[in-house]
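Appendix B. Chain record.
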Amino acid sequence: MLTIVQIFNNNVALIKLNDNRLAIVKGKGIVFQKEKGQQVDVNKVEKIFYLETAGSKENLYFLLKDIPIDVVTTTYEIVDVAQKEFGFSVLDYVYITLSDHIYGVYKRMQTNSFHESLVPDMHTEYPTEYAIGKRAVDIISNNLHIQLPKSEVKSIALHFINAQGTPGADKLDDSLTTTVNNIVQAVLSQNHILRTKENGNYYDRLMVHLQYLVDRLNQSENHGSAFTESLENSLEKSYPSSARIAKEIYNNLQKQLSATLGDNEKLYFIIHIQRLINEQPQNKNVNGGKKNGK
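Structure tokens predicted for this chain:
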């Protein structure tokens, strides 16, 4: 039995299974004229995504605050494919980072303001992640009815490169999380970056990222210096102010916690800060930098 817990639209709902597990189900008109507590017709289920961890459940409700349900379910479908078809283990925070990326790309495509990614091509070093990226682009194009450029493969691959981990490994340490948040917020305040109505969503995304950073602080990141150095140089040239603040956060965390952060954390800080301060790229021609509105 599939009992309706929450209806998102006529085609998508959150349901509870007989064993009390939660899942998202999709299907044309699957919950049309139905209500919470009623049963879903199993024959109408086209796709089902199980919420196996506490993190995936929490992230679902966090995302639904400001991400369209079609983007959310597309994200869950991509992660589901990565785990089942590629045997790729990911930490739960990928639901946040990937959905945020997909929604951002979708909006830029709709407004003809999309720019090619600055991420360098590393498909030789990360063949599985790039294969997932290719499947993801097909899923996004099919579900959201947009034609994504090939450069999005490497952008999506980056999310899986950084989110790879052992399921269940992302258990949060509340005390350390508070300390990390305080260190980061101190740097933000010194640079006059506060949470506002305009940047609230991006600020919250950064706070979520910090929660999962806690469990990676003492893990060595060996994703290849060529990858991180190349991307870091590109981002520093494009977003110098964001890079400066990101480095300050990165260095303060390492110094005050006596810990070693992976190089990729610095890259994510740059991306988060750029969104918070809305810094425009200084070198729009990097990687061709062509505007793509098709």
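Further analysis of this model is presented in Appendix C.
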